[in-house]
Amino acid sequence: ILASEDIGNADPHALPLAVAAAQACEIVGLPECRLTLAQTVAYLACAPKSNSATAAIDEAQRDVRESRLLPVPVHLRDSHYPGAQRFGHGRDYQYAHNSPDGIVAQDYLGVDREYYRPTDRGFEQQIAARLETIRARLREAKSNRPSADQLDESSEEK
User: Fold this and answer.
1) d(Cα 123, Cα 48) in Å, to the nearest integer?
2) Beta carbons of 52 and 117 less than 8 angstroms apart
3) Which of 81, 94, 113, 118 is the S-S candidate for 128 at Cβ 3.0 to 4.6 Å?
4) Alpha carbons 48 and 19: distance in angstroms, whole number
5) Of 146, 110, 123, which is closest to residue 49 (Cα–Cα)?
6) Contact 24/32 with Cβ under 8 angstroms?
7) Are 37 and 21 in contact (CB under 8 A)?
8) What are the structural domain ranges in the chain?
9) Which tens digit of pLDDT belongs to each residue from 50-107?
10) Please, what is the Cα angle at 156 between 154 and 158, to 5 degrees?
11) Cα–Cα distance between 140 and 130 in angstroms, integer?
12) What's the CATH architecture for 1-65+109-158?
């Protein structure tokens, strides 16, 4: 649990290492697996720590428990069944893999809510930088989108 709860994305190698150590101990057994355990304990103890993913899932679950739920945005709903088009499901969906950097400015959550806040420790520094690029792109796209009032005005002009 240390590898996920306390180290998390600060060192994403911690969890596979801990799982591999547990498997090695099952196969090798004592007393030989004490070396595997010592190596793993030393690695995990020295690994950078982050509980950002734990805090994010806790916050998201709290929103669910407190009924702060929103429907899935229409463009993200399944469009592969008969009648989906009639409901607008999948319309205007943008496939991120078609974008040069894999980022598209579309709404994935339905609210301005950010659950995951990475630390500046270990590998999470790189995740934080990438996430800031993504969030900046989303903010920029949102600021360039016409507001509901502007859309109403343009439809009245027609």
Assistant:
1) 9
2) yes
3) 118
4) 18
5) 123
6) no
7) yes
8) 1-65+109-158, 71-103
9) 999 999 999 999 998 998 877 888 888 989 899 888 998 988 888 889 988 888 888 7
10) 75
11) 15
12) Up-down Bundle (1.20)
Residue owning tokens 């590998």 = 123
Q: Which amino acid appears at position 4 of this protein?
A: S
Q: Specify the DSSP element, H or E, that contains 152.
A: helix 148-157
Q: Which residue has the tokens 């969906």?
A: 93
Other residues' Cβ atoms within 10 Å of the Cβ of residue 130: 14
CB crowding 34-67: b at 16 or more within 10 Å, else e: eebeeebeebbeebbbbbbbeebeeeeeeeeeee
The structure tokens listed for 137 are: 């792109």
Q: pTM to 2 decimals?
A: 0.74
Closest CA to 134 of 113, 108, 103, 106: 103
